[in-house]
Amino acid sequence: MTNNLNVPTINQFFDSQDPVLDKEIVTLIDEYSGELVNFKKQNIPVPSNGRYLYRTKFNHDESLAYYKRIVTNDISIKIADVHGDGNTDDSVEIQRLIDEMEIGQVLHLDNKRYMLHHPLQISKAIKITGSSTKSNISFPPFLITHNNDGIVINASGAVLEGFGIYNIIWYTTSENSYTGIKVNGNPDHHVYDIILKDLTVRGFHTALDVNYLWSSQIQTVKTENCKVGILIRGLSVNNEISNNTSISINSDYDIPGSRGIWFEGSTSKEGWRIIDTLIYNVYEGIYAGKTSHVNFMNSMIDFCRHIGIVIAEDCNNWNINSNYIALRQPGYGIYLTNNIQGSSFTRGNKIVDNDILIYDHTEEDIISIGINITGRGSLYDDVRGNSVKNFKVYDIKADPGLKTTITHNKCLSQITPNIVGNFITNDNTGIVYYQNLTDSLQLGKMKMAYGESYPVISSPQWKRGDIIFNIQPSVNSPVGWINTTDGINTWKPFGIING
């Protein structure tokens, strides 16, 4: 290909053996994009397998000239020998172009469909971008995998933005074991500063699998019809899922065992922030093992099929705040089931200001609980200001001895009791059942408890005006005892029962 100025194509120039053409800078025609491009001679050798961004010219005198493409803007996929027809395998040539890119460069995808028979490997800090999955164009860029993984990120600093990646046969049509995007860190090589933004991932077993990920962002990522939305493995720390990220399964499909966000429990994780995120029509919205110091806020888990949030073994100090959690069939809204006691730094989970409900359904329901707290490691939890409705067993249940504080909740289910636990204040809406003799109810400055008698040993925990009700009343015995002094307790009977 030449134009009327007699400009050779890239291949014509590098196939030539004339040393006279070996100028410092040459202007050539790119036979794939049709654009005029410049190559600059290099003093040091370039890789011999270059095709798009660097080339080697063999002259007739056996001398070699090394050239590198001058890149001033984003690199267009148009410069590669790709088809973008959704049928022909483009993975080899896209991979070749990625391998020739330098750190910091940007590859821009055209608005076509690129078939991948092999996963793309990203081993340097580059950016791959498209025109956005939210753009008004009818044909935004998509990668289509041919029943294989999609993209594997092996290096820190990589950015993916503005395109989609689909498996050719969706998981909902035929189950598979493939992953859309993998971030591939390991114990010796943590991956930092990854940005995944404005992406759609559809039809895989797992949409996104991150391993040993640190200080990275997942924003406006939409996963659709995958069994697992985001799988988090390894020592992954200080990351954020936010900005209207959504993890969903179409309402026509039911994928048993599906999970929205799964913190896999073989290695510790901490410091995650999940904000402004939607999880829809999965069995478990969030499942966490060995994961602590997590903020889940201002988000929605909707039409969940089993449990909204599971905080399992060796998890501590979660803040679940200002979310909407709704089930479509019997299960638990929030389930804390940690049987491993944490360190002295354990401060308890905070479940605050959430709307938790179960939609009307036709299934037999003998299990549903809004907030269910079990396990000897679920200590010092604060359940406060939640609105809980339409459950059939309990709105809030905390096992004995967990020191769960339950305050100012609206328990609106038509059941008795609504709340079972200890350390329950009198500002909850609903009927309360106290579990054991050490439970107490705080009414302003006065504490009310119950027992067979008053304590014979004074304790500073008892103040003047505190009351203990008698749980074994009989004729001529008191209704209870009231403490009349501070410091050394003085208990006096009241309400003698007449015969």
From TrEMBL:
Name the record gives this protein: Pectate lyase superfamily protein domain-containing protein
SUPFAM superfamilies per the UniProt record, alphabetical: Pectin lyase-like
InterPro entries given in the database record: Pectin_lyas_fold (IPR012334), Pectin_lyase_fold/virulence (IPR011050)
